[in-house]
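Trying the structure run again after the queue cleared.
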Amino acid sequence: MNDKEFVGECVNKYFPNLLKNWKLFKGNISTEFLRYVGNNIDMVFFDTSHLEPGEILDFLIVLPFLKEEAIVVFHDIAKQVNSTHRIEFAPYLIFNGIRGEKFLPSGVDILTQNIGGIKLEKNQNRYHEEYFRILGGEWQYFPKELHIKLIRKFFKNYYDKRCLTIFEEAINFNRIFVKRNPGYIYYKYTAD
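Done. Tokens:
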């Protein structure tokens, strides 16, 4: 059973009343699908690569489409080590960087937490530059050039010049970093 069949079966079995509203988008990055989803998203759940720039880029792509005070949920927000001994840090970074009221299951703190939600503060555009600065570290994978171009074009439509400059600086820094440290980037993920 492929992904679409599995997800479709779950919708069909447990939420048949939602079938008319259900559509699975895959085979490209989210910049290419959001126009079909539309504005005023009230809740989003992120569970993607977990390696930088992963969820950081994903959040920046979805942010312009979120309602004021939307709920944003991230999986694997605790620093984790994967099977290749890489520290999965992207969800931790973006979860802690986003401005809003944080929600964690009771009795568990952020250092051991696996999931967390945020009710965004109003007027998120005042934090855009801070969020883009989270991209400034060493990435653990480098997106395909086609995806970089699509993201760049998308960001030009939704963010100001300062945010675009920070994005370009992060790309340039990581291109240089990859050349100096060719074994550091986990190239397997570039095909995803």
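The chain has two domains: 1-30, 39-191. Worth checking whether this holds up in the mutant runs.
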